[in-house]
C-alpha cells in the first residue's frame, strides 16, 4: 500500500468504464478513463484502488509485471482472488489479449497470458462476462474479423457494419461489426472453447449489461429497442430464453447500464444511456420467477449514471461507483460521437435492497451518532468497538446515499 503524508485522505480519480468487484467487503477498482482538457485520458494500469466498505477508507496498491497497455472497452472479471482483463482497445487498436493478476498476496504482478489453448476470440470491446464454475463466459461486443472468419460465421451471429483494412499482429482483418458469440475460458486449464447454443439468442450487441443467477446468465440492453429487452442463457444446456414482457411495464431501452443479482430470483438495474440520448437515474428490479419489472423509488434523482459499476455488497446492498453523470452524444448525418465530458464521478452510492438485521441497524446508528454514546463506546468488546469505529469513519468521511 502507498504511504500518505500525515492523515491526508487518499481517493481515486474520477473515472468511467472501469471494472470493479467486491471481496471480503472491500471494493476493488481498476482502469477506466477520465477527461482532461477535453481529451480522454486512460487511468494507470499499474495500480488498483481498494475501498474498505466498513470505514469508507481508500488505499492504492501498486501492480508490477507485464503491465497491460491503456485499454478502453475491456472486460474485467474476478475469480478466486485473481483479476482477469480481456480484450478492449489499446493505443494501437482492437486487441484480444488477456492479462491476469493475483491480488491475494502482499505484492501484485501482472501476467500476460500467452500460453492459452484453443481458439482465442477475435479482437473486440464492449463485451461482457459471466463467472461460472471458475470459467469466464464472454458474450457479445464490437470488433473485427477476417474474411475467412466471417464466411464461417452465421450472419445472425456477426453483423458487418464496416469494411476496412487493419493488421493486428500478423493477421489482416477486414470486417468490423457486432457479435452475439459465447466464448468460454477455463481458468484451470487456460483453454478457450465456443459452445453451440440453442434457442432464441439475443441479437449481436455491445454496451449491454450482464448478471449471473445460479446457473443462468442474463443479458439486457445494448440495442436500439424502445423497451429494455432481457434474455437468459442456461449455462448447463447452453439454451437461450427470451423474456416476453408487456411494454407498458418495462424500463426504457438503454445501454452502458448495470445489472446486479440481489437474490436467487431478482436483478437490479440502474442508470445507463437511454435511447432518448439522456443519462438515466432510474432503478428497477426484475423478478425472474414472476417475470415482471418493478420500478424503485429513491431520493437521489440528481445522480444519473452511465458507464459506472454496480457490485453486490454485504446485506444484499448494491454498491455503485464512478461513471459519468451526463454523457453527451453528438449526432450528425454521418456518425454518432461521444462528446468529451467533465462529468465523471468517484462517489459511492449504496442501494439497500433488503431489510437490515437489528445488528446492522444498531451498528449504523452508532456510526452516525457516536456523540450520543460518549465514553460508553469504550465498554464495547474490542472487535465490536473496532467495527463501530469504522462505521463512524464511514459516515463522517464518505457521506454515502442509502436508498431503500
TrEMBL record:
Keywords: Kelch repeat, Repeat. The keyword Lyase does not apply. It comes from the Eukaryota. The keyword Coiled coil does not apply. It holds the Pfam family Kelch_KLHDC2_KLHL20_DRC7. InterPro entries: Gal_Oxase/kelch_b-propeller (IPR011043), Kelch-typ_b-propeller (IPR015915). This is Kelch domain-containing protein 1-like. It comes from Seriola lalandi dorsalis. The lineage of its organism: Eukaryota, Metazoa, Chordata, Craniata, Vertebrata.
